[in-house]
Specification:
Blueprint: E1 25-29, E2 32-35, E3 40-43, H1 46-49, H2 58-70, H3 83-95, E4 102-106, H4 109-124, E5 125-126, E6 129-130, E7 134-138, H5 147-152, E8 167-170, H6 175-178, H7 185-203, E9 208-213, H8 229-239, E10 243-247, H9 261-264, E11 271-274, E12 286-290, H10 292-305, H11 318-333, H12 336-351, E13 362-365, E14 370-373, H13 388-401, E15 404-405, E16 407-409, E17 412-415, H14 423-437
Parallel strand pairs: 3-15, 7-8, 7-9, 9-10, 10-11
Antiparallel strand pairs: 1-2, 2-3, 4-12, 5-6, 11-12, 13-14, 14-17, 16-17
Helix pairs in contact: 2-11, 3-11, 4-10, 7-8, 12-14
């Protein structure tokens, strides 16, 4: 018998894949979503950090419609591509934090990271000799759901038989939760860099291609790295000729109040991946900014073998490129980077006092994003391990019933509304959270 709900919905138990447990969303407008019953919700996570321009942006929709009428599809390959794909590559090369990048398109952030790994291996695999085939990333990070990107991801491994061979994970730079007793931020940073160095020595520097890192990891709970973390990491990797990759899939296009999250944490990288907000979710598209050194290795190999056997059906899709160009135009014209930084400060002003609540361990902010940490305090005001994840999940469910969509992440409640959110809407979001937490008792 066929189920009356054959759709598999991710990031929840499969037993919850039924009409009673899955809310059906019928439409969206601005920062609001509406379910089948007409109930209104504020989407305070931008639908997994994607919907930068909210829902039903008519200007963006019109640009997509025009492109559909002009050229609805074209495979980019074998000496053909679209004018919109060329225009977008030129735009991204202009605004990229990577110097003189080559742009390679994909459909999702997972694919962007996966494709970058693939072209790194293309540049490293020479005349039957596999060199620099290993990759380092960080625990609790998130880099995607395909086999290679999921292997980069710092969790959810054992259930899927991951990571693949050649993928290694080091500590997340979470000073608040990862420091040793009495350890200063500088000492914490040095210890983490030493951990990376020890791994490089153990595996052999000549075998490692790259280190992948999110400027700020939302999947780890919005922990901003110590001040000199990325400088020290880049120095170490440069010494061993290992590339550093900025995964900007979540943090790019204004989420941190800057165009790139790397700009907000003094993070200089060799390559970058991007997606999500690039089209505000109106069309699946992602991109890779490939730095000069890898470009040269790729070109040299291609000259020798007269081939670069990589393409993807929906990569560089002309409609996706048109959507991205219009999204970037709106972000720049409406000064949404500056707006995100401003309302992010208002969000911090409203929610910072929650840190005094006896059941809140920490409250963190970065750009237009916040994390309320349910690491419960004990009688000595020390962090306790008393089921903060269960409490966070319960509060998240109650907030959804209150008409506010947030995101629970390992005991932290994350908020990251669309860049178009107004000051009044920030106050509305904050009031719903404060009201719900005000009902908690020790």
């Amino acid at each position: 018998m066929v189920s009356d709900f054959p759709l598999i919905v991710g990031f929840q138990p499969l037993s919850d894949n039924n009409r009673n447990r899955v809310k059906t969303i019928k439409r969206g407008k601005g920062i609001y979503l509406y379910d089948a019953s007409g109930k209104e919700y504020i989407e305070a996570t931008s639908s997994f950090w994607v919907a930068a321009l909210g829902f039903q942006n008519e200007e963006l929709i019109s640009s997509i419609e025009r492109q559909y009428r002009k050229l609805p599809f074209l495979v980019s390959g074998m000496h053909r591509t679209s004018d919109t794909s060329i225009a977008l590559s030129e735009k991204l090369a202009t605004i990229s934090a990577i110097k003189n990048p080559a742009i390679l398109f994909a459909a999702t952030g997972s694919e962007a990271n996966d494709f970058l790994i693939k072209v790194m291996k293309y540049g490293a695999f020479d005349e039957g000799q596999a060199v620099r085939m290993k990759f380092i990333s960080r625990k609790q990070s998130y880099h995607g759901g395909t086999l290679a990107s999921a292997s980069l991801t710092g969790g959810h491994h054992s259930d899927f038989g991951l990571p693949l061979p050649g993928f290694f994970h080091v500590s997340q730079p979470d000073f608040h939760g990862g420091r040793l007793p009495g350890e200063t931020e500088e000492e914490f940073c040095k210890r983490l860099i030493l951990e990376v160095e020890n791994l490089i020595v153990k595996e052999g520097k000549e075998s490692i291609a790259a280190f992948f890192a999110e400027p700020v990891s939302f999947s780890a709970g919005l922990h901003v790295p110590p001040k000199n973390y990325f400088k020290c990491l880049k120095k170490l990797l440069d010494q061993h000729e290992i590339d550093l990759v900025a995964d900007e899939v979540v943090t790019g296009f204004g989420r941190t109040g800057r165009m790139w999250g790397s700009e907000s944490v003094d993070f200089s990288s060799d390559h970058a991946t991007m997606g999500k907000g690039i089209t505000s979710g109106y069309f699946p598209l992602s991109a890779i900014a490939i730095g000069e050194s890898l470009q040269e290795r790729m070109k040299e190999k291609s000259r020798r073998i007269n081939s670069f056997a990589h393409a993807a059906t929906y990569a560089a899709h002309p409609v996706g490129a048109a959507a991205a160009l219009k999204t970037l135009e709106i972000i720049e014209r409406e000064k949404l980077l500056e707006h995100a930084a401003t309302i992010g400060k208002l969000l911090e002003k409203e929610l910072r006092p929650l840190g005094e609540h006896p059941l809140i361990g920490d409250v963190r902010f970065h750009g237009l994003a916040a994390a309320v940490d349910f690491r419960i305090r004990d009688e000595n005001d020390e962090l306790s391990t008393e089921d903060p994840i269960g409490l966070c999940n319960r509060i998240n469910s109650e907030l959804i019933e209150d008409g506010l969509i947030t995101r629970p992440v390992n005991g932290s409640l994350l908020i990251a509304p669309p860049l178009i959110t107004t000051s009044d809407q920030i106050l509305e979001i904050s009031e719903k959270i404060k009201s719900r937490l005000g009902k908690l008792t020790v």
